[in-house]
Amino acid sequence: MRSRSVILLVAASWLGCTPNDKNPPAEEKKDEAKILSVFNWTDYIGEETIPRFEQRTGIQVRYDSYSSNEELLAKLETGGAQYDVIFPSGYAVEILLRKGMLAKLDKTIMQNLKNVAEEFRSPYFDEDMEYCIPYTWSTTGIGYDSELITHAEAGSWEILFDARFKGKILMLDDVRASVGMALKYVGASVNSVNPAELQKARDVLLKQRPLVHVYASGGLPQLFGSGEVSVGYGWSGDIRQAQKINPKVHYRVPKGGSLIYVDYICIPASSANVVEATRFIDHILDSEISLEIAKTTAYATTNSAARSLAGKELKGLWADLDEWDKEKGFELIRNLGLGIDLYDRLWREVKSR
Is a pLDDT exceeding 70 seen at residue 5? Predict the structure, then answer.
């Protein structure tokens, strides 16, 4: 999720086939004049996902990208661009729902909805999946150079404050993720709005500030993979992408757990192509398409059928799901309402030092 910023216009030039049939289904009439605008995290879709959809339907996809939920929310709220499909994290979905900015989904034309894993079928903000469909899930944790740092050392948040790695530490440039980590470090909830706990988190981040080489939410695979950073706090999929570049890069969730994210697929209420957007969502829910997304992005999808098809090399992506419970300390990021102002002020102070 979350690497470099790009804007792509993907032309329908890849002559592929549908996942389960060499010819497009008869009911899939090609809509040559249609252009579907998709707004997604960067490097967060399969290499063949869009070309196969274009070949299957005749609908062109214009693909734009963002690097944080806050960027997505700002773009939608200002109305600077019109999008048909978006991929917000759970707490951002909740915000958009409260503002009436999402279209209700027509699930009657989603043949692949049955593939959504039971664990993800009832998000607390949309229990019947009327406005959002789960896409992928991930954790945050420690990415580290295994030649410099042991697996045991990476099992503690302390490694992010180790002066040995001054100038070689990466932190996510993401207010909820990084403030959440600091709250976890001081023994508080990642969703705390308690002023005393937030003060402790602030002090921790300010103390760490001189050690940090870069705050980044994009380009993590390259930063870790090139060795520019030796240790850092990042999203599981991005760090696993870095491992493809440099096998020395490893990932670990520290003892006591971390943040867990579920990202969703939604249609903005302002979309002029709701039917086409729904067809795109159903395309992504196809088991083979979903598996290819997991393979490309190194993020586990919420698709149970894709998980059952995964080979040995991919099954590890779903490992944390088996430990997702309160005893392991994983916490979902939730909407804070007005409490987000406390986080924003704290984060601005840290970044300005």
Answer: no
The neighbouring-strand residues paired with 85 are 38
Domains, the chain, in order of start with CATH, read: 7-136+261-316 (3.40.190.10), 138-260+323-352 (3.40.190.10)
Give the orientation angle of helix 195-208 with respect to helix 175-185, to 10 degrees.
100
How far apart, in whole angstroms, are the C-alpha atoms of residue 64 and residue 38?
A: 6
What's the pLDDT score for residue 316?
84
Q: How many CB atoms lie within 10 A of CB 95?
A: 20
Distance CA 109, CA 287 (A): 16
Nearest to 332 by CA among 177, 182, 205, 172: 177
DSSP secondary structure string for all residues of 124-155: TT-TT-SS-EEEEEEEEEEEEETTTS-TTGGG
Q: Cα separation of 3 and 42, whole Å?
A: 6
- The mean per-residue pLDDT over the stretch 178-187 comes to 97
**Rounded CA separation 253/236 (Å):** 9
CA-CA distance, 235 to 223, in Å (whole number)? 13
* Residue 13 reports pLDDT greater than 50: no
CA dist., res. 100 & res. 160, Å (int):
40
Q: What is the DSSP letter of 102?
A: B
